[in-house]
Amino acid sequence: MTRIAVKFTFHSAMKRRLFSNVRLSGSWDTAGRFSDQWTQLPMAASNDGTACDAFSTSVSFDAAQTGSTFQWGVLADIQGSADAWVVTTEVPDELSSQCVRRFVLAAEDTQQDYWFATGRRFGAQKYYLPDSPSAGIRFAVWAPHARNVEVIFAPCDLAAGAPTGYIADDGTGVDPSIAAVPLIAHAGGIWESDLVRTPALANFDDYLNRLYMYRITNEQGAATYKADIFSRSQVGRGSVNPGGAHYAGTYLDLDGIVSCSAIVDPDQVTKDFNDTGLEKSTLIFADEFWANEFTAGLKPPQNIQDLIIYELHVGSLGFPSTSAGTFADAMTFLDQLWALGVNAVELMPVLEFDGDLQWGYGTSLFFCLQTSAGGANQLKHFVRACHQRGIAVIMDVVYNHFAVSNNERSEWGYDADPAVAPQHNLWYWYQGQPTDYAAANLDGGYLNNGSSGYAPRYSEENVRQMFASSALALLDDFHIDGLRVDLTDAIHRNNSLNADGTSVGSANLYGIKLLRELTRAVKMVNPSAFLIAEDHSGWTAMTRPVDQGGMGFDAVWYADFYHHLIGGGNYSGSYAKLLKNAGYGAGDPLNMDYFCGALSATQYNKITYHENHDESGNDQNTARTIVTAVNHAPLIGATRKYAEGRSRFVAGLSMLSAGIPMFLMGEEIGAAKCYRYNDFYLNKEDLIGERTRDGRFLFRFYQDLIRLVTTMPAARSSGIDVIYRHNDNRVIAFTRTSPAQQLLVLASLNDAPFDRGYVLATDPRRLPAGGWLEIFNSDAAVYGGDDVGNRGATLQVNGGRINAVIPAHGIMVFVKVS
């Protein structure tokens, strides 16, 4: 009987050891014939050319099965789970979530590979030939429409003055002394260099720090110069885009997205934080760098319900400079976070984006850290320093669009001219063919999705894997603790045709595939990783496990909570808008009843916030909390006192809700300047100095409130019951419960205190009888309040009734003690 051998290899493409007891499972029997009863075979462990774990085995098929389609996958034991199915990529069928690989049996021996991640498959990577002890270098790029691909280099000695780190469209800037590296076309549109055919690639160290681009002869025969989409470092550190013209300026002014990529070793880190030159002199191996990552007794939280999240924009640090802040400024700011007591910091996007004076939501290079902010090594130092203080780091990532401006050197038109063949603009979804649209409106085939750019081509496995692999690289190489995924509605719901706004359901379905693949892979690498979605769709599947038909996120941003509690922006009257309406100062009733539902809903996997980057002056008719609290009146004298009291009220409700609390940088000192995407650098505030000046009372309030929430089990539970509200009196009450503890929260946004007592009556079953001890009062003198309250007394509850003194715009917390 004629036999055909197929070798199967599962590539982890991760530096950490994730998989054991790895087995191949496939739709054939022991004789190599198709079978509905799948066969399992053990896979032998080894290292592949990337020096990461790989697992292989061969199967002998009956040649009579030639032409048959077989399916296969891989089982393994991973952290917290045995017999896990570790193929996370779904089949190319919009209606199926099945994760299997398929192939048609050829007439000759073949190879089948699956890459768990592609961050070390593509790009400029260390590569080991079999039996070679030293690393060479391999370049790999996905360009299925290209006629030819080669790697070209720019001069590295930028200190000499003449070289710039930029290659013009006519090739000016290429170093003629370094031979171009030809890439060879392989199946699937992948182009790779060959160490055997190009012996000059045998020593990786010879290429370390070299500047390079891909010269792609596109489908139309034109030579184009493209950055490496899998680049780990870009040379540009500014915002200048020469637009393809000759450039004689310095790389310090050059936008990183359009500059040359730089070859780096992701397995090494600078020992010296300030070693930021193009050639690093203090590199050490990553294992050594991370050896002292944690401090005994201060490990960052592992449960999302325990988080107190501080939203931090690195670019807004560095007061009083009007330049963009850097990771060096973030390191300086860490002591402030430590003193404040937060245990998680959410970094707004710091993957390479266009320019430097922006928020970061224009990402195009998803494996590269913003060079102008300090780059990959400085971020690693920041993460390690956070972990040493028991602070988790969550990264804000953008997978719903690519950079809109300065993108001609990355995804846009990568291997085909979009003006001629937009349907082959392979990183972007293009619906149909150009002939479906008028000649003057070829852009009609792209998709809008509510973000600031066209939708990516989620139907392409390589596109989806690039996004998922970017997330895995953040976990593997940077030890990031979690992700906040930007505007997931744009991915799974809002895709519509640019031509006429028609919904494109297949794009939504493939977007859903991306979300499932992303969360599967992340949880496989780190089951404790936090996955947070900015999702405003109300789709309950977002926080349902993938194996139960969901998207697998741990929590979603809860915008309705903000709109009810604060009320900035132009929103309908169906929102309570408590702070905005209180800010008018008229003393009218407030819709506490509207707010009750939002408060109760915080128990369902919600991120609750009274301030974030969107609603802090960026969205129309919004402002910072302390400004909204007094309707933009000057923050002096009694007005500031009112503003701080009301600010304490909304912060307290957000922190003491059943959600996972988050707030924007500066709230803790009463930051008042509008925080806008286009001029944030002109509106920086002295967050450190204000801690001991006008912001000292709010800072102390935040410290004590955070300490209360992080030490009280009931405050970190999901148990909440809104037991009372009164619109005229502006009072609301709710309980927080855990198996061993009960808390009662009384809150008033009234402008006068109930200093003679306030009788609250509710169902006795919802407010148990007994003694309730006052343990927190937001009106304490140390917070700048009037010290109106119950002075730590134990109040008695009988028949569901309690009589408590409640301060003006105050939050009071009681714990049941008897």
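(ticket continues) Second input and output from the same batch:
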Amino acid sequence: MLNKPRGVVTTASDERGRDTVYSCLSAGLPWVAPVGRLDKASEGLLLLTNDSEWAARISDPETHLDKTYHVQWERWLMNIGNRDDKRVRAGNGEVLRAKRARMLRSGQKNTWLEIVLDEGKNRQIRRMLEVSDIEVLRLVRVAIGPLVLGKLAKGNCRVLSSEEKRALDGR
């Protein structure tokens, strides 16, 4: 698992010369590939593996592994409401849905939400909030299923324990 820093792209090489997630990995590691993606402006938990079958199982929407994000924007918000329906319709008519959303904290300068997705469409959270004219300042993935980012420093990575891997596998 890697704590992907903001500004780093999730690819093996970049034609524009930007830093990639591979710049965060130690030399001498076996080849690994990202399991899913985080866009350049997002940060947080990213899994990498050399087991393509495991990666496919983990990223398959049928596994229903929740992905939990903490989202900050520059706006005070009194209440996001407790609606069961967390759907929005994007500009192209596509329906985007959050499984859950709750306010973490709100102050005079900004608000932090926790948003849980059980699917991951391209830039889904940013697009959902954009419909309400909300510009995301920070978007941090803090968990994938039972696996929590915890205190892993930005740009650092570590090997999953066998217990963590079993928990992701649902065993």
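Agent notes: Confidence is low (pLDDT under 50) at residues 81-85. The CA atoms of residues 104 and 113 lie 5 Å apart. Closing as not reproducible unless the customer responds.
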